[in-house]
Amino acid sequence: MKYKCLVFDHDDTVVNSTATIHHPCFQLYLDARFPGRSCSLEHYFLKNFNPGFLEMCREEYGMDDEAIRDETAFWLAFVESHIPTAYPGIREIMERQRAAGGLIAVVSHSHEKNILRDYAANGLPAPDAVYGWARPIEERKPNPFPLEDIMRRFSLAPEELLVIDDLKPGYDMARAAGVPFAAVGWANDIPEIADFMRRNCSLYFKTVPELDAFLR
After folding, report:
1. How far apart are CA 100 and CA 102, in angstroms?
2. How confident is the model at residue 70 (pLDDT cuts 50, 70, 90)?
3. Which DSSP symbol is given to 11?
4. Which of 139, 55, 127 is nearest to 97 (CA)?
């Protein structure tokens, strides 16, 4: 066990959800509320990478707080009936971590109840800690609070954690907390995202088996 706690992002790190659920849902929302507007999957990935989904909604679609609440309600209703599939090999990584006595945490912009549902539906070990979207904004990534809280709760040093994430908010969070970061790129093939991660992250894994081999 290289790290006492593996801190997983959820969407596009553990489960294949943007391409199959979140992006189609956003396009349906645009069709209903902003007829004639569209958002490609690549653009959706890029804007979630940087500056973030909420910033995209405000800057590109002119959504105010009321519209964002409306979009969030639309998304939550859609997610309730759509369960993403875990990437092959993720379950084995988590099971090995748990069998070795290690911890599994989740820091995500999805809601905790949906994360736990997805873990159960995919036969993944129940996480020891979950930090989701329902938390106050100052307790969500890229704020370092989730990692600092994990370290307090489980008496861990920064080097005993590894953040595993596909997007910049996770990188920013880990850097702010002084925690090792592993960038993963199996959800998309967008050069701008891969180039940033390769340049700035000492660990980059394009496939789940690459991550699996590193953690053994």
Report:
1. 6
2. very high
3. B
4. 127
